[in-house]
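The freezer alarm interrupted the setup, so I double-checked each line after restarting. Inputs confirmed:
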Amino acid sequence: MSIINTFENLDVAKIDTGRKDRTGFPEVVFCPQKEDEYLLKIYKKLYETQGHVFGTRANSHQAQIVKKDFPQAEYDEVSKVLQILPAKKTELIGNIAVCTAGTADIPVAEECVKTIEYFGSKAFRFYDVGVSGIHRLFSQMNEINKANVVVAIAGMEGALASVLGGLVKVPVIAVPTSVGYGASFGGLSALLTMVNSCANGISVVNIDNGYGAGYISTQINRLAEKKDMFCS
Amino acid sequence: MSIINTFENLDVAKIDTGRKDRTGFPEVVFCPQKEDEYLLKIYKKLYETQGHVFGTRANSHQAQIVKKDFPQAEYDEVSKVLQILPAKKTELIGNIAVCTAGTADIPVAEECVKTIEYFGSKAFRFYDVGVSGIHRLFSQMNEINKANVVVAIAGMEGALASVLGGLVKVPVIAVPTSVGYGASFGGLSALLTMVNSCANGISVVNIDNGYGAGYISTQINRLAEKKDMFCS
Amino acid sequence: MSIINTFENLDVAKIDTGRKDRTGFPEVVFCPQKEDEYLLKIYKKLYETQGHVFGTRANSHQAQIVKKDFPQAEYDEVSKVLQILPAKKTELIGNIAVCTAGTADIPVAEECVKTIEYFGSKAFRFYDVGVSGIHRLFSQMNEINKANVVVAIAGMEGALASVLGGLVKVPVIAVPTSVGYGASFGGLSALLTMVNSCANGISVVNIDNGYGAGYISTQINRLAEKKDMFCS
Amino acid sequence: MSIINTFENLDVAKIDTGRKDRTGFPEVVFCPQKEDEYLLKIYKKLYETQGHVFGTRANSHQAQIVKKDFPQAEYDEVSKVLQILPAKKTELIGNIAVCTAGTADIPVAEECVKTIEYFGSKAFRFYDVGVSGIHRLFSQMNEINKANVVVAIAGMEGALASVLGGLVKVPVIAVPTSVGYGASFGGLSALLTMVNSCANGISVVNIDNGYGAGYISTQINRLAEKKDMFCS
Amino acid sequence: MSIINTFENLDVAKIDTGRKDRTGFPEVVFCPQKEDEYLLKIYKKLYETQGHVFGTRANSHQAQIVKKDFPQAEYDEVSKVLQILPAKKTELIGNIAVCTAGTADIPVAEECVKTIEYFGSKAFRFYDVGVSGIHRLFSQMNEINKANVVVAIAGMEGALASVLGGLVKVPVIAVPTSVGYGASFGGLSALLTMVNSCANGISVVNIDNGYGAGYISTQINRLAEKKDMFCS
Amino acid sequence: MSIINTFENLDVAKIDTGRKDRTGFPEVVFCPQKEDEYLLKIYKKLYETQGHVFGTRANSHQAQIVKKDFPQAEYDEVSKVLQILPAKKTELIGNIAVCTAGTADIPVAEECVKTIEYFGSKAFRFYDVGVSGIHRLFSQMNEINKANVVVAIAGMEGALASVLGGLVKVPVIAVPTSVGYGASFGGLSALLTMVNSCANGISVVNIDNGYGAGYISTQINRLAEKKDMFCS
Amino acid sequence: MSIINTFENLDVAKIDTGRKDRTGFPEVVFCPQKEDEYLLKIYKKLYETQGHVFGTRANSHQAQIVKKDFPQAEYDEVSKVLQILPAKKTELIGNIAVCTAGTADIPVAEECVKTIEYFGSKAFRFYDVGVSGIHRLFSQMNEINKANVVVAIAGMEGALASVLGGLVKVPVIAVPTSVGYGASFGGLSALLTMVNSCANGISVVNIDNGYGAGYISTQINRLAEKKDMFCS
Amino acid sequence: MSIINTFENLDVAKIDTGRKDRTGFPEVVFCPQKEDEYLLKIYKKLYETQGHVFGTRANSHQAQIVKKDFPQAEYDEVSKVLQILPAKKTELIGNIAVCTAGTADIPVAEECVKTIEYFGSKAFRFYDVGVSGIHRLFSQMNEINKANVVVAIAGMEGALASVLGGLVKVPVIAVPTSVGYGASFGGLSALLTMVNSCANGISVVNIDNGYGAGYISTQINRLAEKKDMFCS
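Predicted 3D structure, all chains:
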C-alpha cells in the first residue's frame, strides 16, 4: 500500500489535507476546547484548501469569532454546527431516514442531518417516534422504508433501535444519547441496549455521536447510490 | 404496631411461620446450596405447618431427595420448581399475562407462572413475542389487555417491557433475564433498559427473578379481584 | 390489535393525544431542557385538548413563562411540579402510602404525591421513617397497612424498601434516590439494594423517579378500587 | 404501515416465517441452550419452509442430533455454524473484507464469513493483521480497499478498527471479541475502544457477534451491488 | 520506631513469626491454591513455632493432607477452617454477637466465629435474623445488646447492618456476602449497601471475609475486656 | 426487645430524641441541601432538647444563618463543622490516632477529629504520613501505637491503611477520600484498596466519611476506656 | 535498610526534603485546592531548600500569588505548570519522544515535557499523530526512533500506544487522557485500551498524568544516559 | 519511515519474523486456546527461523505435544512457560528486581523472571515482601536498590508498588494480579491502586501480565546496560 503522505503542519496540528483522497471525506473540525485564535486559523486553512468548512459542537462565542472573518458562516443553535458552505450547492443524493425516540434527542439528530447534508446526501427527519407510543412510529414506516439506511437515535432505554431493526431491510445505525437521568448513567444504558439488540442489522456509534452516525450513513448511502465522488 | 412474634427455631434457621398472617403469603424455600438433610427438614416442617410447600431453583438431585419422603411432590425441569401441592385444589382467580421476548426466557417465565398459581392466581402465557418481530406481540394484544397485570420477561436489550408499557392500562412488572452474551453482562443491560424505560407503568425486579415477579403480580391481581384471603 | 392512531404533530413533537384512551392516563410534560417557547406551545396544546396539564421537573423560570399565559398554573418549589389543574376537582380515590427514609428524599416523594393526586388517587405521607431509627417506622405501621400500595423512597443504602416489604401485604414500589455521597454513586447503591431485596413484593423504578412511582402506584390503586375511569 | 402478520406457532416458539419478506433475510437459529428435541423441531420446520437452515453457536452434540435427520447438514468446528445449505448454490455477490487482529479472533471471523456466504455475499479473509505488527495490515490494504464494507474483528485493546477506519472509504463494522485477559473484562475494553474510535466511518456490534457483523455487512454489500433479492 | 525484624525464610515464603509481638495476633494460613507439600510445610513450621495453627478456606483434600501428619487437626466442613488447637485450652473472654441475615450466610459466619474463638474471644450466634421478617431480629435484641461488638453478615441487599446500627450502642462490623444472584454482582450490592449505611457505627470488611470480621471484632472485644495478651 | 418510642415530629422530620438513650450518641445534623429556615428550626429544636448541636458539611452561608440566632456557634472552614458546644466542657477520654496520607485529606480528617471531640474522646493528629515517603510514618509510630484505635484517611490509592494495619495492635478504621483524579473515580479506587487490604484489623467507612469514622472510633475508644456515659 | 529520616514539619504538611537523596528527584507541588497562603509557604520553603520549585496544575490565580513574591516564576497557561527555575541552567540530557494522538491532548503533553525538562532531560514533541491518519505518525518514525523512551498520550480510544509499541525498540509510557465524550467515561476507555495493548513494551500511568509520565520517562532516560545526578 | 515488510504466512497466521529487527525482540507464542497441531506448527516455524522458542501460559498437555518433537523443550509448572532454549547460552546482563507481595503472586512473578532471562537479562527474586509485614521488605531494600528497574507484583489491594515507588531511584513496573476474592474483582482493585499511586516512577501493565512486565523491564535494563543486541 502506498500511504498518501499529505498533511499540512499548522503549528502543532497536522491538518490531514490528504484525507479526502484517502477516505472520500474532507477533514472537519471538532470545536470544543479549541482556543479562539487557533480555531480561526484552522477554519482559514481548511477554507483555503477546500472552499468549505464544517465544524461540530461549536458554542455561540466560537460562532461569533468565525463569523467576523467569514460573514457567510452559518451557525445552528440546536445542532451546534458551524459551517461555511461551498459557493456552489451540490445536489443531494439518496435517502437517509433519521429517527429519534423523543424531542430531547433532536440536537443529536440535527448534528447528524447537517453532517449528512454537508457530505452530499439527503436526510429525512422522523422525530419523536419512540416506543412508548409505538403507533407514532408505525404511521411513518412507509416513508422510513424508502431509505437506504436508517439512523435510530434514542436515550433512556434506547429501545427504538431494536424495534426499527425488526421492521426494515436496510442497515440501522444506532446512536445512544445521554438523554435521561438516574440509571441512564449518561447514555450507558442506551448504549448497552443498542449493542445487545435482539434485532439484526444494527450497529452502534458513541453516545451523542450524531456526526459519526451521519458519516457512516453517508458512506452507506453513497454505496447504494453509486456516487462516491462528493463535491468533485 | 404489634409485631407478630411467630417463628420456629429449626436449628439455625428461623422458619417464619407467622409470615402468612403478616403478609398474606406462606414461607417458601430457596433451594440452592441447601444440604440434603437440611432441605428435607425444612420441607417437613413447612408441610406439617401449612400442608403444602413451594421451593424454587431446586436441582434434580434435590427433587429426588424430597420425593423419597413426599412421593406426591412435583418437580418441573424447566422452572426448577419443586412443590408439594395442597390436598384440595383452590380455584385460581383473576388474570396475569406472562410475556417473554424469546424462548430462552421461558425458564424464568415458568418459575413466575408456577409461583402465581401456587399463590392462587391465574396466569396466561404469551411467549416469544419480542420486539425483533413486533407483529407477534400485536397479534396477542387483545388477550394481553384482559389481564390485571402484565409480566414482561426479556434478556439481551430487554425492550419488550417498554413496548408493552406503551400499550396497556395496567402495571407492567419487568423481569430482566441473563439471556444474552457479550455486553449483556449477565442481565445488567436488560436491567438498565427496564429501569430507564421511557414508557410509564413499569417497575422492575431482580435479574432472572421469576418468583419475585410472580409474587408482586399476585399481590396486584388479588387487589384487583378483591380476594386477599388465599388458601384460608 | 387495532392501534389507536391518534396523535398531533406539533412541529417536531408528536403529542400523543390518544394516550388516555390507550393507557388510561393523559400525556404529561417532562420539562427539563425544553425551550421556553416550545414548552409553552405544549402546555397550550395539552390544555386545549384535555383541560389540564401536568409537568415535572420544571424550574422556576419555566414556571414564570407558563404562568404569564396561565395565571391559574401552580408551581411547587419542592417537587418542581408545574400544573394547570382541571376546572372541576375530582374526588380522590383509594389509599397510597408514600414513605421516605429521610428528609432529603422529600422532593422525590412530593413529585410522587403530586402525580398520584393529579391522576385521581389519594396519597398519605410517611416521611423520615428510615431504618437508622426503626421505631419511627413502626409507630406508623398501622396507618401504612391501610394502603392499597406502598411507595418506599430512600437514598444512601435504601434499606427502607426491604423492611417495609416484610411488614405489609400489598405491593411495595421502591424508588432509589440520589441522596447520599461517596459510594452511593448517584443512587446506584440504593438501586442495587432495592433490586436485590430479600423481602418479597418489591419492584423498583428509576433513581429519583417520583413520577414513575406515582404512576404505577395509581394503576394499582385503581385496580384495587375498581375505578379506572379517571377525569371522565 | 401494514404489518405482515406471518409466523407459525411451534409450541411456545413463534417462528417468524414472514421475516424474509419483511427484512430480506430468513429466520436463523441461535443454538445455545436449546434442548435436542426442540432444536430438531426448529430445523425441520425451517427446512420445510425455506429449504435451508442456518444455526450459530451449535456444539458438536447438537451437530450430531441434526445430522441424524439431515445427513447433508454441515458443521464447522471453528465457527460453530451448523447449516443445511440450499440444494442449488447461489452465486455470491459483491466484496466484504473480514479482518482480524490476531489468530484467536478467527472463530468470530469464521462465524461472520459463514453468515455472509449463507446470505449470498462474497467474503475475503484478512486474518492476523493487528496493529502490533502494522506492516502486515499495510501489505493487504490494496486488497482490502476493493471491498464494499470492511469488518474489523479484534479483542484485547481492539485498535484495529481505528486504524482501518483511517485507511478506507467504505464503512467499517467493528466487532469486539472476548479475546484477552485481566482488564479486557470479557471484551468490554475492546468494545469501549471501538465505540470511542477517533476514526470516522466505524460502527460497532456486540462482543463476539460475528453473526451480527455478517448480517449488517451483507445489507451494506447488497445495497452497493443493487441486488437485494437473495435466494429467490 | 524500631521495626521488629523477625521472620523465617521458608523457601520463597517469609513466615512472619514476629507478627504476634507486633500485632498481638499469630500468623494464620490462607489455604486456597497452596500446593499440598507446601501447605504441609507451613503448618509444620507454624506448629513448631507457636504450638497451634489456624487455616481458612481449606478444602477437604487439604484437610486430609494435614491430618495425616497432625491427627489432632480439626476440619469444619461449613466454615472450611482447618486448625490445630493449642494443647491447653484458653478461657474465652468478652462477648461478640455474630448475626446473619439468612441461612446461606452461615459459612461466612462460622469462619468468623472460629476466628474469634481461636483468637481467644467468646462469640454468640444469631443466625437467620434478616430484615424480611424483622420480628426475628427484635426477639434477639436483648441478647445482642450484651455484646461488646456486633458482626452483621448479609448478602443480597445487606440491609441487616443498617437496622442493627440503629439499635445498638457498640460498633457494628458489617460483612457483605456473595449470597444472592442477578444484580447482587457477587456481593457488590451488599458491599455498597453497607458502605452507604444511613446508620452510624458501621464499618465494613471485604465480601465473604468472615476471618477479617472475626479479627477486628476480637481486637475491639479485647480492648473492651482489657485483656490483650492472648495465649501467653 | 422494647423499642424506645421517642421522637419528635418537626413538620415532616422526625427528630430522634430517643437516640442518645438507645445508641449512646445524640442526634446530629447533616447540613447539605437543608433550606435556611428548616435548618435553623432543627438547630433550635436540638439545642432546646440537648443543650448542644453538631452539624456536618455546612457551608458558610448556613453558618451565618445559625450564628444570627446562636452567636456562640462555631464554624470551622476546613472541616465544615458547625457546632454549638455545650456550656460545660467535658473532659475528653482515651486516645484516637487520626492519620492522613496527604494534606489534601485534611478536611476529612478534621471532620473526624471534631466528631471525636464532640462525642467526648481525645484525638491526636498524624497528617501527611502517606506511603510515598514512608519514613514520615515510621517517625510517628511510637505515638500512634499509644492509641486505642487508629483512623487511616487516604485518597488516590489509599495504601496507608494497609501499612498501618501491619504495624499496630488495635483496630484501624479506614476512610477512603475522593482526593485524586483520573482513575481514582471519586474515591472508588481508595475504597477498593481498603476493602481488599492484605493486612488484618481494617474495616472501612464510606468515601470522605470523616464523621462516620469519628463515630465508630469513639465507640471503640469508649469500650477501651470503660466510659460509655457521655455528657450525662 | 536505613531509612533517611529527613523531612520538615510545615504546619500539618511534612515536606519530604530527603526525597532527592532517596529517589534522585526533588519534591514537587501538586497545586489544586491548596489555599493561597499555604501554597506560598510551600513554594518559599522549597525554594529556600533547593533553589527551584516545580508545581503542577496551578490556576492563573495561584500563579499571580506566587509571582508577587517570586517575580521570576514562570507560568504556562497550556500545561498549568508554575515553576521557579534554578538560577543556573543545567544542560539537558538524552532524548524522550513525547507523542500525542490529537491536539486536545497537548495540555497533558506539555505537563509531561515541562516535567522532563525540569528534571534535566531533553524532550521532543510529536503532536497530532493519531491513528485516524496514520501516515502522519509514519512520517515521524525516523525521529521518534532516536529516543531512549517514548511517551504516547491519547484520549478517546487511545490506540496510539499500541501502534507505537509495535514500531519501536524502547519502552513506551502510555498516558490515557480524558479527551473524548460519551463512552470514553473520563478516560476509562483509553486507560483500558492501553492496559490491554496487544503490543509489547507498554506500561501505563493514570489518566491525564503528564507529570507521572515525565517522571518515569526521565528515570529511564537517565539510566540510558548514565547520568543519574541531576542538578547536583 | 520504511516499514520492514517481513513476515511469513502460516495458514491464517502471519508470523512476524521481522519483529526482532524492528523491535529488538523475537516473536513469542501465547499458547492458550491454540490447537495442538497448530501450536506445533508455530513452534517448528519459529525454531527453524530463530533457533529457540518461548511460549507463555502453556498447559501440561501442550507441553507434552511440543516435547514429542522437541525433547529438549523445558516446561515450568509454576510459570506455565514452555520454551526451547538456544543451543548456546547467552550471558545475562544487568539487574532486574522482581518483587511479590505474597506467595500467591509467584506464578506471575515466575513468568516475568523467565521472560527476562529468555530476553537476556538477569532477574533477582524478592518474594512475599508485602506491606502487611513491611519489615520483610525493608530487610531486602539494600539488594533491591542495586537493580536498574524494579517489578512490583501484587494482588488484593496492591499497595506494594506505592511503597516501593517511594524507596527507589529507578522505574517501578507494577503488575496487578488476580489474587484475592470478593471486591478484588479479578484484579481490578489492584490495577486501580497501582494506576492511582501517590508515589512517582510507577507505571502499570495488565492484570497477571508477568510476560509484559518482563518485556518492558528488559527494555529498560538493556538501555541501562547499553547492550541492545540480544542473541545476535
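Quick read of the result. Confidence is low (pLDDT under 50) at residues 1-5, 228-232 of chain C.
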